[in-house]
Every structure is written in structure tokens, then in C-alpha cells.
Amino acid sequence: MTVLELIPQYLTYIARAYEQEPGKCQPQTFETAHALSCMRVCMILADKRRLDTTIAGTIGLIHDIGRIATGSNQEHAEKGVEPARRFLAAWGYTKQAESTIVAAVANHSRKHYRDDAFSELIKDADVFDSAYYGMIKQERAYADRLQQVRRELGLAAL
């Protein structure tokens, strides 16, 4: 299985969520673009960090599933655990891989804390990608992560 196989299913998941409940906290176009670009950034960072790129791409793709499911940014990482499990159930991930993905989804908003390698990966990708949309929080943990990822990728500091 590749991450490419998940994309159509996840984009359908997003579209259905917006059909059922329009007026979510982020536009559908943002959720779609952010999911796809975080998927790619996660895969690039995973390659640099010698982590599994399929697991990393999956995490990047579905990390905001809680926000899509609830329509709210409030505690969306934690609320993404069950929707993530349901979405992943059909894809044949090992229990260990599924556990890793779900933990990263649950932890991705904890930018001020250190967690496992895959949780750190999505936190970094999320901050990096959000900065390109002008959506960076003016908090030290976010700024530090953004600069660290830019250095890791050989990009100039902001």
C-alpha cells in the first residue's frame, strides 16, 4: 500500500464532511491543500530523518481529521483519535503502525512538548506548512519549530 492510494479516499472523506456540515472553522480548500502539502512535507522530513515515509505521509494526510470531523479547531488533535482509527481500519496497517499514526494525530497540537519521532515530525510539518498560509502562531514553540525545520531543509531563516 502507498500513500497515493489513501488520497482519493481522504479527499472524499473531506468532501462528505463538508456536504454534511458546511460552515466548518476552515474552508474545504484549505483543509484539502493543507492535508496534501503536510503529507509531502512529512515524507520529505521522514526521508531526511530516516523514518518510514509511508507512515509519515499517512500522518501528514490525516492529522487534522478531528477538525474535519468536528468542524472545530478546539481539541481537534485529541478528537481525531477515533475518526483516524475508523479511517485507517480499511487499509491493512499493522497494529503498531496504526498505533503510531493515531498517536501522532493525537499529539500534533502539543507543539510545546517533545513526543515520539513521528509526533515531532507532524508537529514540524504542520508549523512549516501553516507558515506558508500565513497561519503561524506568535508563540516561541511555533517560531522555534519553524526555524528548526527551515534549517533542516537548508532554507534561510525568516
SSE diagram, text form:
Blueprint: H1 3-20, H2 28-49, H3 53-62, H4 65-70, H5 76-79, H6 81-88, H7 95-107, H8 117-132, H9 140-152
Helix pairs in contact: 1-2, 1-3, 2-3, 2-8, 3-7, 3-8, 6-7, 7-8, 8-9
Short recap of the structure:
With 158 residues, this protein is an all-alpha fold.
Protein architecture, described:
This protein is mainly α and 158 residues long. The protein has a single domain (3-152), classed as Hypothetical protein af1432, CATH 1.10.3210. It contains 9 helices and no strands.
**What is the name of the CATH superfamily?**
Hypothetical protein af1432
| Separation, N- and C-terminal Cα atoms | 37 Å
Sheet having the most strands: none
Order of helices and strands: HHHHHHHHH
Whole-number count of domains: 1
CATH level-two architecture = Orthogonal Bundle
Which structural class do you get from the secondary structure elements? Answer: mainly alpha
| CATH class placement | Mainly Alpha
Rg measurement, Å: 15 Å
Count all strands and give the number.
Answer: 0
